[in-house]
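Pasting as-is:
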Amino acid sequence: MQEKSIKFANKEESSFVNTLRGRVKAYFDENQISRFGNRNMVVKTVFMFTLFFVPYLVMITGLVTQPWLIALCWVVMGFGIAGIGLSVMHDANHRSYSKNQKVNKILAYSLNMLGGFYANWQHQHNTMHHGFTNIDGHDEDIDAGEILRFSPNQPLKKIHRYQHIYAWFLYGLMTITWSINKDFKQLFGYIRDGVKLSREKSNGQLITEMLISKVLYYGYLLVLPMILLPIAWWMVLVLYFVMHFISGFSLAVIFQTAHVMPSSAYPLPDEAGHIRKNWAIHQLMTTTNYAPKNRVLSWLIGALNYQVEHHLFPAICHVHYRKISVIVRNTAQEYGVPYHVQPTFRSAIHQHYKMLRSLGSGAMQT
């Protein structure tokens, strides 16, 4: 099934959508601020890149030689990968980091530096996940193969009864699979399905670009450490895995607690490919915020605890989500449409655990 076959209702709840967009626009106009990033975004960018590159350079240049300090550097780099992905690359790929699209494009390439491939991410995340959230067969974020069941519309297998236990380990493999095999599988799969990933580059150019980026990535993050660090090569591999496990787990938990929740809807299109609800209402039905009062967490994870606002306004930089969340919440309450929120990150994780268990036991069926 191709994503273009899905059509959302255009007129239903259009009054809510128009009112909400008008109020959010008025917020920026009245306060005379840009919807793009600000000084806070620049500070955060410097911090996140420092979190990744300083430990790397400290190791490579031989400033630290003790094995435990080298291991600590890899751990910090794991959080750096997650931080760059959540707070910099994510906004850049949505073209909301800067009004200068060249800046967005450059920072979008930071995903390649971390082991992924920007063209795959833009299609999977921007087009499919944001366009068709929680719609089975269209949103790849809920398609984790046969070992995990993220939707009641997916086949139930015996192994799923234990997914609330083993899913957490699999979450840690998220980014390492990008660097090893997922990008190759995705890119060739998209090309096979006729997906147009770039207006400027041919499929051949994208393949070449991905291969070059992978060679450079493995070169600086595996080959150089194996040559220069005063530890065994196999220890580099172990620490490389630890780094990616930290980043993968962090990213997966932050994203999955926003959509695989007891409050989430999993609508299916009718035979004509129509979804009954307006696209914006669909986002409200399938998305959950969490920890809205935790400013430290919000700063560290690119305000993705405000997933509702992000899904409704992906072209707005995340530094504005806390303020506009008040507008979104009040407007949703005024019009009687869903606005899901968990009070803390801990409660969101607990609800996600319960959802995994329900989906695995077959308690949730279509």
